[in-house]
Amino acid sequence: MTDKTNDPVAMWQKMVGEMEKGFNSFANQAMSSPEFSQAMNRAGGVAAGAQKQLGELMEKYLVTMNLPSREQVTGLAERLQSIEAQIGEMKSMLSQMAANSGISQGFDGMPRPPRTKRPPSENGGQS
Amino acid sequence: MNAPAGLDLASIPERIQSEVQRAIQRSIKGVEYFSTSGPSLGSTPKDVLHSRGTMSLYHYRPMSDEIYRIPVLIVMATTNRGYILDLVPGQSFIEFLLKRGYDVYMLDWSAPRPEEKSLRMEDYVLDFIPDCVRRVQADSGEQDVSVIGYCFGGVLSLLYGAIHADGPMKNLICFTTPIDFREMKLFSNFSDRRYFDVDRLVDSVGNVPPEMILSSFEMLRPASRTVSQIQLWENIWNDEFVKSYRMFDRWATDTLPLAGEYFRTITKDLMWDNKLFNDSMSVGGRAAKLESIKVPILHAVAEHDHIVPYEAAKHLIAKIGSTDKEEVMLKGGHVSLVAGANAVKRLWPKLDSWLGKRST
Q: For position B129, what pLDDT does the model report?
């Protein structure tokens, strides 16, 4: 077997690892400065402004093309969400009714295991 | 001429042959990589108990003949999806808990919709979590609930626990949970109040875009993405490596947007004023002091966590009011602490031995 110190593949991998650490450390130092924060947030502010403008422009374009706007799609999504929530509530009520009638079962209709488990140290090491 | 010390000349042809075979495999597997979609994640059988906007409550189907009395509610971080805790069979924290006899629920998040930009910290701490706890109580028939919070899910769980000190939370487990936000040095610098206009950002974009969240995570280790791609290419002949890479890469890039108002509060109250650490945090006018939490607590932190450095998490246990409290530092990083081969042998058994005896 070759020694790791002379294995070119291992040497390459080590070099990549060291480069990663070195670059990350260097970049972290650079990013810790107030100047970096200032520059990053200036650029971020511009990008956020541009995103808002673009969003408004797209909204106008969709109206012109007679396509549903985001607001309309969101409205549909809300209605779907409300239907989903009602189905969820119905399932929950059914489950509750089943529990009240003494049937211990989940949404899948399968009976639930008993809640009697003890930690291994209390039952002779069995889990 | 003598060979350099440690170099076995006889092994060179064998090594060359192995490298050539790997090069061929790389080409074949490389094509496969781009034409397949990777392993299916989050597939442990579960039921959606409740879903409301960005919030979903799952109940996982038991995998044991007998379960502990106290159910477990996992509160996921709002920036990422919960399937990191349910990767594939054999590497799923959820599956591990189920097989060890826990009754497991998860509060998971989907991307907040544009109209959910007005969700506030109050909605998460005083509505979503209590609502899920009530539903867990109703579904399980038990009053006590153990809560596990991962990363910012831990922060939300702490706020919930501090405000609802009278119960029904019975045990609290936090994974890599920051409380001293000054010590998250780079995030702190990125959000320096002198230069970061959070109001302008939130008022412009509504929900904070996932790209921005992802970039801020990636900026903590800017070379790591490139290096991981180099490592992928080197190891693309290795199916296990590729499977693991795909799982973690998919999850890491599947970042969620954050609701605008919620982000505004995180920035102002936590990043700028460090209120949780300074005992001045309140949510919806209700004080949230860590000393109010009296339930048993376990805090697991990672030795090489670059997202939540130890300095940001280390005061949690000291500030908690419980008498039954423990911090455990384990090898690994922010993600490998909870998922993957490292977690299977370190965190999961530790959690099981701690929680099992407090779950009856």
A: 97
Which residue of chain A comes nearest to B135, CA vs CA? Answer: A92
Q: What is the pLDDT of residue B103?
A: 97
Q: Which residues from A are below 8 Å from B4, CB to CB?
A: 6
Is the pLDDT at A77 greater than 60, yes or no? yes
ipTM for the whole predicted complex goes beyond 0.85: no
pTM given for the model: 0.81
| Residue B330: predicted pLDDT | 94
Verify whether the Cβ–Cβ distance A2 to B11 is below 8 Å.
yes
Q: Which of B19, B189, B357 sits opposite A9 (nearest CB)?
A: B19
Contacts of B133 by beta carbon, 8 Å cutoff, 6+ apart = B73, B145, B147, B168, B169
3-state secondary structure chain B: CCCCCCCCHHHHHHHHHHHHHHHHHHHHHHHHHHHCCCCCCCCCCEEEEEEECCEEEEEECCCCCCCCCCCEEEECCCCCCHHHHCCCCCCCHHHHHHHCCCCEEEEEECCCCHHHHHCCHHHHHHHHHHHHHHHHHHHHCCCCEEEEEECHHHHHHHHHHHHCCCCCEEEEEEECCCCCHHHCHHHHHHCCCCCCCHHHHHHHHCCECHHHHHHHHHCCCCCHHHHHHHHHHHCCCCHHHHHHHHHHHHHHHCCCCECHHHHHHHHHHHHHCCCCCCCCCEECCEECCHHHCCCCEEEEEECCCCCCCHHHHCCHHHHCCCCCEEEEEECCCCCCCCCCHHHHHCHHHHHHHHHHCCCC
